[in-house]
Amino acid sequence: xxxxxxxxxxxxxxxxxxxxxxxxxxxxxxxxxxxxxxxxxxxxxxxxxxxxxxxxxxxxxxxxxxxxxxxxxxxxxxxxxxxxxxxxxxxxxxxxxxxxxxxxxxxxxxxxxxxxxxxxxxxxxxxxxxxxxxxxxxxxxxxxxxxxxxxxxxxxxxxxxxxxxxxxxxxxxxxxxxxxxxxxxxxxxxxxxxxxxxxxxxxxxxxxxxxxxxxxxxxxxxxxxxxxxxxxxxxxxxxxxxxxxxxxxxxxxxxxxxxxxxxxxxxxxxxxxxxxxxxxxxxxxxxxxxxxxxxxxxxxxxxxxxxxxxxxxxxxxxxxxxxxxxxxxxxxxxxxxxxxxxxxxxxxxxxxxxxxxxxxxxxxxxxxxxxxxxxxxxxxxxxxxxxxxxxxxxxxxxxxxxxxxxxxxxxxxxxxxxxxxxxxxxxxxxxxxxxxxxxxxxxxxxxxxxxxxxxx
Length: 456
Ligand SMILES: Cc1cc2nc3c(=O)[nH]c(=O)nc-3n(C[C@H](O)[C@H](O)[C@H](O)COP(=O)(O)OP(=O)(O)OC[C@H]3O[C@@H](n4cnc5c(N)ncnc54)[C@H](O)[C@@H]3O)c2cc1C
Fold this sequence. Notes:
This protein is α+β, with helices and mostly antiparallel strands. It is built from 14 helices and 19 strands. The strands form four sheets. Strands 12, 13, 14, 15, 16, 17, 18 and 19 form an eight-stranded antiparallel sheet that branches. The protein has a five-stranded antiparallel sheet with strand order 5-6-10-8-9. Strands 1-2-4-3 form a four-stranded mixed sheet. The relative contact order is 0.13. Flavin-adenine dinucleotide binds near residues 73 and 137.
């Protein structure tokens, strides 16, 4: 692309346009996963919707690849791409709450931290992720799994409308009333259909919650998982959280001589009346002795950011994902075999329960198809040292290979690795063909292909 055209883009854009000639380039090309080392042609740091349209038009007209970045958390690093135009929305992150209507609009680059701070002020929340630095749009467009999902549904189930810049540079609103086909596809279909510049959510009254992590001896992990899978079937829907495997970090509530050892955890979030919190978590204490815990009442945004310190930007990431309709004994055995090998304190394995309100949405009502799955499992390899890449990636792959035969064919798109493109059809099951149809309508040339791609 000749410089004059980039110059024209610079003049057009209200934010900034960064190329390899600019001092800001190194920072602008980097994403959260430090394993990703790509050199885009141009990064458009958007200030407004106009900038997004300018970036989309520029990519299309110049024939360059286009990548979208919000919170930058894509593990395969879809937020940056060689020789591409990157639409960076991280400068667009306002959240406006309507406390009467119990709704909020979030800009396309807002993080869950931005969102929760704004809604918490009114005692309201919706389902978001478990880390506050994850992008609202990226997480919601893939489905959105978090502490509140059993009670409130997935994040995408709480989406009311979205403003979308489409491949032709147009701006449309998608909702049940307008562009309902696009609205259906956005709820699980990821960044395949356009750049979402704003999202409207339904909010629910959630202010303070009772929760936090409980650490159990690894040799009791089987009991913990078997108890959890039974208990969570009929547990009150205000109870969220998940079983996990985690190396104990050096925190004051963990005995010093146990820090650095792998444990089984339950991370709980009781979003019902606070005075019932202790009782709601009691069954977990009865399963096995709790070695260490940090549970109690706290503002919901505090739980949503409690693990941020374990996953700072700049780690190496490689993840794999599964859905489990049944968490069988054989699946649990595979976890017990591989979890002790967690490569670093940053790595973790989470088994998110996605029953309750998530099950009350029909499989074909949104693009997110696995409405009968009880667990979304992520094997989240995260470690600081690039020298450990081969061994740590091997750990994730071996773990995944061991659990895959006891899991569904598909997994949650937002937890998938870059080498999982072959599983796209399986991730969407019966919804895949309709997604392809809608892709053909809104993006026939596959401008938005730097993602878990639904090819037209
Ligand atoms: C530390 C960590 C914790 C996580 N925790 C959770 C969790 O609790 N629950 C959960 O469900 N997921 C979780 N995830 C996965 C997360 O949902 C995905 O990585 C998601 O894609 C991140 O969105 P982002 O905006 O931060 O990332 P980005 O890298 O900026 O975007 C990822 C992709 O999402 C799409 N996208 C992002 N913004 C837009 C937009 N405005 N318009 C159109 N497309 C867009 C694009 O395809 C883009 O390539 C976590 C990831 C990490 C790294």
